[in-house]
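Chapter review: from sequence to fold.
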Amino acid sequence: MEYIHQNFDVNFKYGVHFSSHLFDPANTCLSAFLESRADAAFQKKLLVILDGGVAAAHPGLPDQITRYLSAVRGFQPAPEIITISGGESVKNDLPLVFSLVDAIDKYGIDRHSYVIGIGGGSLLDLVGFVAAISHRGVKHIRIPTTVLSQNDSGVGVKNGVNYKGKKNFLGSFAPPSAVFNDSHFLTTLDSRDWRSGMVEAVKVALIRDTAFFEWIEEKAVALTGGDMPGMQYLIFRCAELHVAHIGGGGDPFESGSSRPLDFGHWSAHKLEQLTSFSLRHGEAVAIGIALDSVYSFLLGWLDEASMYRIISVLKNMQLPVWHPLLEKQDGRPSPVVAGLEEFREHLGGRLTISLLKAIGTGAETHHMDLDLLYAAADICKKLQ
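The token string follows.
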């Protein structure tokens, strides 16, 4: 039987830039990037989608953005900046998805133009997804404004929205054209967002970098108290480790079942949903890291001293390490534990959970002992 075999590679590359006061006319970081991609034959367009909370925290920001982008040679900004709410709720709003697709159509944003998302991780997830499904892929630029989005979600290749109560059920792998981290946006974060964003650095240090974890351990109290130079280093190193894993792990679009960067996330995703997202993503991940670290200890993989060090770092960051939903509910299974199968479905293939062999060394298991898991939850409760 005859057949045609097709095989090709697509090369993706993008820069993660670190700056401050990105839209100051004197700052050419973004304008130089755009002008390097201008075309003398025709003018490209820009559509900005802005987090309303960021706009409120930085008075005059929309006008500043408009003036800045209007001066970029070879580009024409859309006549309006679309301002929407931030936070997880935007990922639960399908009408909003299609209203943003309509805006891309209305303003003629073609595949040579750019959609620019400015906001936290949820907004960037939404904007990236909208760009990916419009014209089979419009270029998008991410400008993350939170710790969590600058050090983790904003520098990766995934986009998505929630559907049927399932986190990121609709989504795409669509790398950004560039990421611009502006540290000035961090100065207006509330304390919960500041603290919870650091947990992704804890996560990636635990599975990949012992020295980075030791640095975080030493600096945890100062970081929690608002140490900006420390935070800038934490974001840079965390982003560097995430980018290195995505680009060098051999599976950037997650076609396999291995997800080391999801350490602590199987329970976190379910906790977010079960609490109607009253738990910040980082807070839920902190609980998930605590649970899986204690489980790793009970499994005999992680030594007891390391387990206590991990719990101590999370508590020094004023992050939770337990939630009542980890317990059985009136004799019924914990709804979080029941979410293991949902997590398997999200990953595809067989269940694969990232655990720890040591601080800085991740490992994987394909089976979770439920009795041991409840025992781990009980220890987390006692240690909270």
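Two observations follow directly from the output. The mean pLDDT is 94. The radius of gyration is 21 Å.
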